[in-house]
Specification:
173 residues, mainly alpha, three-stranded mixed β-sheet, 6 helices, 3 strands, 8% strand
């Protein structure tokens, strides 16, 4: 009986090994591709230029605030209550402008992310299309990107998509 079970498991492993051996998997390093792609370098230079401009404007605003604050600190003892209150309100307003500017340019939905999307999306689409073409030419089943800390799936043959089966199992539409 044990011998029959061993033969059965052995046959299963051989069969499974043969079917797994037929899978063709490839990988890329998207960082290397982007570092060598002229379009990506141009987009990065444009983004870097914008970032430098925005950081300079932000630095100028912060310098204005610091100058006004230093002036306020020096003169606050000789100011009238009204003047002191006006200067404090002006400092708070300028501080809010700095915060708003930082959020507008570098925030979650800021111009930086919009520009990144605008400039990098065509480059990423070009790379993704090339990946798909190579995967089809090489008859690859899966293509992964190893550039990040985690491997990311970039391409998979449709025959391996089990989304609808899982949805059916969960009784989803």
């Amino acid at each position: 009986m044990k011998r029959l079970i061993l033969i059965l498991f052995g046959g299963l492993f051989i069969f499974a090994g043969n079917s797994l051996a037929q899978l063709k998997i490839g990988f890329i390093d998207s960082n290397t591709i982007m570092d060598n792609l002229t379009d990506a370098q141009d987009a990065r230079q444009k983004l870097d230029g914008l970032i430098q401009d925005w950081q300079k404007e932000l630095s100028d605003l912060q310098s204005q605030w610091q100058t006004k604050y230093d002036d306020y600190q020096k003169r606050k003892l000789i100011m009238t209550d009204q003047t002191r209150s006006d200067m404090e309100a002006e400092l708070v307003k300028l501080e809010q402008q700095i915060t708003d500017y930082r959020e507008k340019k570098f925030g979650t939905n800021g111009e930086l992310f919009q520009k990144q999307d605008e400039l990098m999306k065509p480059v990423q689409n070009k790379v993704f299309n090339a990946i798909q073409d190579v995967a089809k030419e090489e008859d690859l089943d899966f293509v992964f990107d190893k550039s990040g800390g985690d491997a990311m799936l970039l391409y998979a043959k449709d025959q391996y998509d089990i989304t609808t089966k899982v949805m059916d199992k969960l009784k989803l539409k």
